[in-house]
């Protein structure tokens, strides 16, 4: 991993109140996706969860098998304070790239754009490895460029190059229900894992 974007970098962003990506609530496209899920037993991973408003939303909706992972301790502490019932064993302070479990659903929001772009192929490959057969990788990606990152931008063609070898039935379209400041600049995707990829 790039030394710059390590745990202490992210921890200091939270400590210095430089977490401008934090929406303060679960993001609308993810809320709407979650609202149509019926199986409350799904095992769900939210990598690079940050303050984990989406995990809070899921947990309070009855999805109890939700795991979150983040390099930084501060946002996980914040989740614990807001949702004291959230099981400690489902809060992981660590590196997504070192995780070694499988899930039915992985939800992406502003982790992909936060990692060093040289790691993008590895990130997508890792997400596919962490899915159970036929599991789903779902979330949001920026469809724009930034002057410097993080966040690092990109576009659908670039992302499909990473996704196509690792996923099937990839849907990736302009997001119609982004939060206002991101309106028109996000892609919403749903990608199905390939059975026996690894
Ligand atoms: C831009 S923030 C997004 C946080 C959250 N997803 C949100 O939307 O508010 C990126 C988050 O990913 C975490 N992160 C970066 N690299 C990571 C990695 N390799 N493994 C786990 N978490 C990581 C950072 O600590 C930070 O909390």
Layout of secondary structure:
Layout: H1 7-15, H2 28-35, E1 44-47, H3 53-60, E2 66-70, H4 73-82, E3 91-93, E4 103-109, H5 120-129, E5 131-142, H6 156-163, E6 167-174, E7 186-193
Parallel strand pairs: 1-2, 1-4, 2-3, 4-5
Antiparallel strand pairs: 5-7, 6-7
The structure holds S-adenosylmethionine (SAM).
S-adenosylmethionine binds next to strand 2.
Explain this structure to me?
By secondary structure, the chain is of the alpha/beta class. The chain has a single domain, classed as Rossmann fold (3-Layer(aba) Sandwich), CATH 3.40.50. 27% of the residues lie in helices and 24% in strands. The protein contains six helices and seven strands. The protein has a seven-stranded mixed sheet with strand order 3-2-1-4-5-7-6, with helices on both faces. α3 links the parallel β1 and β2. The longest helix is centred in the middle third of the chain and has 10 residues. 37% of the residues are buried. It binds S-adenosylmethionine (SAM). S-adenosylmethionine (SAM) binds next to β2. S-adenosylmethionine binds next to β2.
Which terms would index this structure?
198 residues; alpha/beta; Rossmann fold; 7 strands; globular; binds S-adenosylmethionine
């Amino acid at each position: 991993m790039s030394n710059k974007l390590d745990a202490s970098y992210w921890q200091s962003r939270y400590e210095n109140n430089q977490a401008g990506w934090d929406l303060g609530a679960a993001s609308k496209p993810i809320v709407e996706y979650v609202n149509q899920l019926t199986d409350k037993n799904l095992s769900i991973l939210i990598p690079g969860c940050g303050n984990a408003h989406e995990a809070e939303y899921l947990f309070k909706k009855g999805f109890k098998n939700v795991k979150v992972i983040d390099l930084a301790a501060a946002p996980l502490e914040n989740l614990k304070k807001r949702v004291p019932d959230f099981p400690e064993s489902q809060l992981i302070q660590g590196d997504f790239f070192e995780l070694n479990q499988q899930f039915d659903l992985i939800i992406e929001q502003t982790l992909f754009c936060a990692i060093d772009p040289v790691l993008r192929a590895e990130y997508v490959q890792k997400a596919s490895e962490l899915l159970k057969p036929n599991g789903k990788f779902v979330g949001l990606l920026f469809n724009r460029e930034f002057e410097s990152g993080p966040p690092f931008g990109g576009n659908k063609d670039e992302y499909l190059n990473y996704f196509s070898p690792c996923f099937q039935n990839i849907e990736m379209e302009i997001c119609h229900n982004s939060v206002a400041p991101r309106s028109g600049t996000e892609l919403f995707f749903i990608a199905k894992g390939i059975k026996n990829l690894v």
